[in-house]
Amino acid sequence: MCRDTGNNEVRRADHLVEEVLEARLENDALARKLAATSISGDQSAAAPKPSGKKTKKVAAPTKLDDAVAEEYRSILAKLDNYDGDGLGELISKYDIRNPETGNAVTPPVAFNLMFQTSIGPAGTLKGFLRPETAQGQFMNFSRLLEFNNQKMPFASAMVGRSFRNEISPRSGLLRVREFTMAEIEHYVDPMNKNHPRFDEVADIKLPLLPNAVQLEGKTETVMMSIGDAVSQGVVDNKTLGYFLGRIYLYLAAIGIRTDLLRFRQHMKNEMAHYACDCWDAEIYTTYGWIECVGCADRSAYDLRVHSVSTKKKLCVRETLDEPLVYEKLVCEPNSKVFGPKLKRAAKPVQEHLESLAAEELAEIKATLARDGKATVTLAGTAVDGDYEITADMLTIENKTIIENVREYTPNVIEPSFGIGRILYALIEHSFSVRADDEQRGVLSFNALMAPFKCLVLPLSGHASFASFLHEVARRLRAAGVPTRVDDAASAPIGRRYARNDELGMPFAVTVDFQTVEDNTVTLRERDTTKQIRGSLEEIVGLVTSLVSGATTWEEVLTKYELVDTVAKNDA
After folding, report:
1. CB 439, CB 499: distance < 8 Å
2. Residue 337's Cα: distance from chain center in Å?
3. Which pLDDT tens digit goes with each residue over 65-75?
4. By the 8 A CB rule, do 306 and 394 touch?
5. 248, 203 in Cβ contact below 8 A?
6. Three-class SS of residue 272?
7. Alpha carbon distance 395, 305 (integer Å)
8. What's the maximum distance between 2 C-alpha atoms anywhere in the chain?
9. What is the 3-state secondary structure (H, E, C) of 7-44?
10. Which residues is 279 bridged to in the sheet?
């Protein structure tokens, strides 16, 4: 974070650099457009017309040198790869200031995004609000594995609230301190990261932005099938690739525009130290590209850390078809000397030695053989410090190990969904206005996402419509279709259609005078505004099929004739 030197306002450094450089590029594009307009002789678009009102003076747009503009684009393409010092250099070199005040800002400093709190009546115990839902799932790994009959791979999922101490909350649902997350933790064998259903998504083509492209200062995506991305090493493994495909299918199914969706790979500097590979599903909105879903291979880091802290194994035991025979360097303490000499530190020192890698243990063995003693340093225990061990306290030698049961800590593939951000992007992608009337807004939610699937309304307030109105609504609700009744017949029916289009309801059933005569009703589709007529039973069945996805409106139009009330009712 960095601070405004004038009013002390706190800003997130990377967002500040991005905001300022993008504004300069937009200013440059406007200056070039005005220059081109001036050359062509069309002065009407070159400057705004005076309104007669007193307005604030706005500075003329400034054109950047071609090299500077290209440099800005390159920086923005790999901005996520800059650390604090790198961002500080950018702020200094390009004179990045607070755009709202014009004041200079301080050099960036690190900031803890976790919310700290005090626990208990005395407030002496420090705690933190959870920044993600994942850790609760990791703590219950043993129970989840037991529930799955000790079989691998398997997954758990959780939806809940998370909290992060956002430096400068803004942009509606996009940057907030409390938000809803949905996270899947898929546990896999580190030696076999294949997925049994990978073939289902292997041929799906995704717009990928690999880290190698970003490091070149470019943002052009590469259309590549998931199968090719995995086989070429762009995506680390098949399980990660499988979830990238499922994320794409999910976002497309709920109504996110796929032409405004990309999958960006994390660069080395921004990737968590324990992650093998990480991709973000980013959705383009009026705020630019927004990270909405993350998909990471977290390796075995979380389970190992919890295991060390709780002193309980969080691992999988797999019976082998054939015994595994191998040589291993083993440390065996001499209990007659080891315990009495180290006393309380004996067990921690032994556990430390047993946890060492073969190379480290071999180094201690060589030191004991050369000097007759070696030093072991403990950290994170109740008896931290340096302890001297001698050659008579233990033996370190190669032994033949025969394993009938393989024991390993699973790796975790984690798709993490930011529900608020996805919802915001969906609303923005779904909103439009009628071509013939900009005052009539439409939320084009598909039937899967619309809160209410069907509107039921009367043509007018005629008393004979009431019983039919309630019967239609009753049948739709009985069929499991969320339905809203708009019987405020004082407004014209076109206006009632329009106000419910703004709420995103995809279908509308209208009761009119012909309904009273022959028990038929009209069915209107929101986006096309076209209507068909059918019996009450037929229309209820059609709406149910349309909502469930069993049929489409295009298929319906091939079987039913349009009614001529469309123009009149939508007027």
Report:
1. no
2. 56
3. 888 888 888 88
4. no
5. no
6. coil
7. 29
8. 106
9. CCCEECHHHHHHHHHHHHHHHHHHHHHHHHHHHHCCCC
10. 265, 295
Extended strands (E) in 365-506: 373-378, 385-390, 394-408, 411-418, 431-434, 437-443, 454-458, 483-485
Helix (H) or strand (E) holding 89: helix 84-93
| Contact partners, residue 77, CB within 8 Å, separation at least 6 | 214, 216, 217, 218, 219
pTM as predicted: 0.80
Residue 464, phi then psi, degrees to nearest 5? -70, -15
Amino acid at site 551: T
Which structure tokens are listed for 27?
A: 């200013």
Alpha helices in 311-442 (DSSP H): 335-342, 346-355, 358-371, 419-430
**Residue 525 pairs with which residues in a beta bridge?**
507
Q: Give the 3-state secondary structure of residue 482.
A: coil
| pLDDT tens-digit map of 379-402 | 878 888 999 999 999 999 999 988
For residue 153, is the peptide bond before it cis, meaning its omega torsion is within 30 degrees of 0?
A: yes
- Cβ atoms of 10 and 105 within 8 Å: the answer is no
Residue 65: both structure tokens together: 């040198």
Residues paired with 399 in a beta bridge: 328
Highest mean pLDDT, choosing among 33-37, 176-180, 257-261, 324-328: 257-261
Are 299 and 275 in contact by the 8 Å Cβ rule? The answer is: yes
Q: Does residue 452 contact residue 484 with C-beta atoms inside 8 Å?
A: yes
Amino acid at 173: L
Residue 135 CA: distances (Å) to CA of 128, 184, 185, 524: 13, 11, 10, 48
Q: What's the full length of the chain, in residues? A: 571
- For helices 335-342 and 346-355, give the axis angle rounded to 10 degrees: 120
